[in-house]
Write a structure and sequence with these properties.
With about 375 residues, this protein is α/β, with parallel strands linked by helices. About 35% of the residues lie in helices and about 25% in strands. It folds into 2 domains: about 1-55 and about 105-165 and about 285-370, FAD/NAD(P)-binding domain, CATH 3.50.50; about 75-95 and about 170-280, D-Amino Acid Oxidase, Chain A, domain 2. A hairpin with a 5-residue loop joins β9 (about 120-125) and β10 (about 130-135).
């Protein structure tokens, strides 16, 4: 049983189904489109390898076609777009839209996922199985429960009640603006950092190789991907004390902050897509010791949430998914017992997961105000 239908939990589910292992996913949201998910993430290295490992081969071409390049020039400019520092170029991996990727990862899983199932508690049973209870009073029982339910994970709260999630002081805004030729020039390569008076703005381009819905229709007609256009993703740190509660307030604050900046940056902010932009709270998990293996475990942000500053969150979740999937395949083959397999996963996951958290926290200075 997987609690949570984010990209990490769905990646695990795809790998298990590919191996012929029975799996069920329970998601608290009412549907795949019920919550804002539309922002760019970078996937590369071990994370991309792990995603490909779990994803059915027939969907690899769709993945490639519905992503974009993330490489080339990296630079720091001031608020008038004057060059401040030329950084080392960035190479490798791909840019993808989380909402598009989530739809792709749902392909073939519709009969295995239940939406509107808000997890409330688990109970480890005498026969070695585990039972999950949901807010609607229903229950489900399985051999293993995987909490892949994000930073606010109810599974983690029960399993690790003393685990600490830290809110980074200050706040920010995550914005998205449709990509035009004018805005594309703001990010000539990997990414652009704008250092303005008292604030920092990060710019990244999500330029799809092909429109995702057309790529799917051509390469895997049974897969339905959203009609998403290319866009420029931007984020901005806000001065201390500025904590917007909603996008309308946040947008007004950012518009005020960029007044007098280069016209392209002002227009970028002004044209932001309200549906796919939001205030941003940055959090990270403090390291936890191994808790003693049982029939409940954790994956991705549910255990090692990290700041977005180094782009490792999704990559680490995919590594978790592939690692756990490999272990459970061995169990299914009779080559390993369940609890030792889960323990081996947890020890490796905690090691690479919290190393990624540390790297991301150390990179927070990129996002800091000046």
């Amino acid at each position: 049983m997987i609690i949570g239908a984010g990209v990490g939990g769905l990646c695990l589910a795809q790998g298990l189904v590919r191996a012929g292992i029975d799996v069920r996913i329970y998601e608290r949201e009412s549907g795949v489109n019920s919550r804002y998910q539309g922002f760019r993430i970078g996937i590369g290295g071990a994370g991309l390898d792990a995603l490909r490992e779990c994803l059915p081969q027939r969907l690899h071409a769709v993945l490639d076609a519905s992503t974009g390049e993330i490489s080339g020039e990296r630079r720091i400019v001031d608020e008038q777009l004057n060059l401040v520092t030329q950084l080392e170029p960035g190479y490798g991996g791909m840019a993808t839209d989380r909402h598009v990727l989530r739809h792709l990862l749902l392909a073939g899983l519709t009969d295995r996922i239940s939406f509107g199932k808000a997890f409330t508690a688990y109970e480890e049973l005498a026969d070695g199985t585990v039972r999950a209870t949901f807010a609607d009073g229903s229950t489900a029982t399985g051999d293993l429960l995987v909490g892949a339910d994000g930073v606010g994970s109810p599974v983690r709260r029960q399993l690790l009640p003393d685990a600490e999630i830290v809110d980074v002081p200050g706040s920010g805004v995550l914005g998205r603006t449709e990509l035009t030729e004018r805005f594309a020039a703001l990010v000539p390569g990997f990414g652009t950092i704008v250092k303005g008076p008292g604030v920092t703005m990060l710019l990244g381009k999500m330029a799809f190789r092909r429109p995702p819905h057309l790529a799917a229709a051509d390469l895997a007609p049974e897969v339905v991907l959203p009609r998403t256009t290319s866009y420029l993703r931007w984020s901005m740190s806000l001065p201390a004390g500025a904590t917007p509660a909603d996008w309308t307030v946040a947008h007004e604050q950012v518009c005020d902050l960029v007044e007098g900046w280069h016209p392209d940056l002002v227009e970028l902010v002004r044209q932001a897509d309200a549906t796919n932009s939001s205030p941003l709270t940055i959090r990270y998990a403090k390291p936890v010791a191994h808790w003693g293996t049982r029939t409940v475990t954790l994956l991705g942000d549910a255990v090692h949430v990290m700041p977005p500053s180094s782009g490792k969150g999704a990559n680490t979740a995919f590594r978790d998914a592939a690692l756990l999937c490999r272990r459970l395949i061995e169990v299914d083959r009779g080559a390993e017992r369940l609890l030792p397999a889960v323990q081996a996963y947890e020890l490796a996951m905690l090691d690479h997961g919290f190393a990624a958290v540390a790297d991301s926290v150390a990179s927070l200075s990129t996002f800091a105000t000046r």
